[in-house]
């Protein structure tokens, strides 16, 4: 299966001044597969350690963290001699052995020649619980579910090349074919096992079986890793998120989680879901000025699922909706489409999105982000809809160069607006505001 993380891992390995790498991501997004494939194709040998499974080696890190001592232990346990840059060392599920994470500092200082990657599905949770972090001594990457472009590369490589080439005429000419693939992606999402199941079987029923099992596994983690009280709060937030996306709320409402709920009682639950990589939190800004973080309203935010396919499964979306022309795009008042765009901004484009809403009116802009010192407002339309009243008002009010509208229509540029098809969301950074 094609994953763009492979190219990023190669770039890391060849970079001057390379440091040990931390690879984060939710469970089952493909971290272990990507690291093993990278080790097997780019190195002479792979010394792979999983601290969830190997408690023996974990005990080694309770003593001296001298890299030479640790490398001898790894060689003894794995049977792979680790001597130089020809062997990749992988610490998987490193959150289960906090001292292994701490040891990366000493590898960076004393054995920078050894390529070493630490990965963990709950690494973010561990870091917020006081694990000693090697500040300034590691590089970072995050793996998300397959983006639409990654999905398309595996499902229809020739069509994907149109995106890769940024060929606007071809993207418009094959619009219907792109839309059909996008509909499928809305249903499957980008979890590797789900995508592989669909590409292998073409069965929507089997896809939903895998998605439901993944949802069950995630919910099981709530009670496995935290105390019962916090686990219940995490579960309530998790279950509330799909319903809240389908409403006309300008922000996440604690009262919709449980009657009488307040922020103080549920902030830790939201942070846990963020740290586990299961939700994407998008904060409101009061005005579009740089830096956007300086105008962030920390009390107003929206929560999106990290995978649009799992959002549909959690919302009990019937597979039959795929048979209707473009109904899927507007399901739950367009929340699937909005979730998809958020995923693409974060996972494909590497963008931190915000949103804007007026204090005392109905005006709202779905996403706002900064790119190349320009403010980019984005309005998301779930259908062929060329009206963008709120977006135009926002652009004029704050004297911005242009606005971006994502819809099922083709490419179109006006004096103040660029319309891009939803299936080309990955190209957003290539279309600046001026």
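-> sequence recovered:
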């Amino acid at each position: 299966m094609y994953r763009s993380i492979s190219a990023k891992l190669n770039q890391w390995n060849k970079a001057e001044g390379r440091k040990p790498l931390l690879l984060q991501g939710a469970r089952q997004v493909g971290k272990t597969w990507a690291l093993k494939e990278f080790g097997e194709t780019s190195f002479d040998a792979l010394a792979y350690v999983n601290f969830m499974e190997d408690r023996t080696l974990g005990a080694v890190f309770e003593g001296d963290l001298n890299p030479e001592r640790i490398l001898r232990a790894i060689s003894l346990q794995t049977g792979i001699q680790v001597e130089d840059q020809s062997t990749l060392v992988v610490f998987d599920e490193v959150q289960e052995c906090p001292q292994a994470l701490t040891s990366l500092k000493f590898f960076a200082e004393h054995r920078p020649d050894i390529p070493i990657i630490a990965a963990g599905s709950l690494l973010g949770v561990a870091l917020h619980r006081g694990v000693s972090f090697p500040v300034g001594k590691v590089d970072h990457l995050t793996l998300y579910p397959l983006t639409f472009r990654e999905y398309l590369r595996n499902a229809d490589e020739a069509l994907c090349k149109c995106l890769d080439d940024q060929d606007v005429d071809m993207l418009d000419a094959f619009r219907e074919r792109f839309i059909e693939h996008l509909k499928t992606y809305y249903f499957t999402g980008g979890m590797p096992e789900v995508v592989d199941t669909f590409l292998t079987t073409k069965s929507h029923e089997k896809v939903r079986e895998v998605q439901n099992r993944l949802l069950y596994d995630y919910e099981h983690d709530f009670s496995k890793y935290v105390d019962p009280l916090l686990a219940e709060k995490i579960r309530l937030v998790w279950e509330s998120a799909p319903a809240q996306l389908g409403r006309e709320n300008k922000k996440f409402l604690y009262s919709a989680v449980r009657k009488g709920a307040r922020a103080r009682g549920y902030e830790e639950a939201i942070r846990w879901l963020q740290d586990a990589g299961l939700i994407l939190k998008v904060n409101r800004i009061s005005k579009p000025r740089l830096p956007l973080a300086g105008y962030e309203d920390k009390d107003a935010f929206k929560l999106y699922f990290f995978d649009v396919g799992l959002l549909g499964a959690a919302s009990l979306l019937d597979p039959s909706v795929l048979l209707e022309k473009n109904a899927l795009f507007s399901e739950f008042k367009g929340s699937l489409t909005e979730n998809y765009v958020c995923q693409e901004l974060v996972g494909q484009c590497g963008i931190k999105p915000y949103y804007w809403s007026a204090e005392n009116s109905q005006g709202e802009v779905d996403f706002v982000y900064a790119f190349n010192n320009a403010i980019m407002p984005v309005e998301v339309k779930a259908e062929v809809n060329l009206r963008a009243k709120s977006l135009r008002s926002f652009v004029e009010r704050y004297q911005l160069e242009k606005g971006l509208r994502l819809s099922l229509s083709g490419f179109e540029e006006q004096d103040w607006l660029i319309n891009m098809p939803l299936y080309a969301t990955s190209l957003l950074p290539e279309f600046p505001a001026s």
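Residues 27 and 218 are 8 Å apart (CA to CA).
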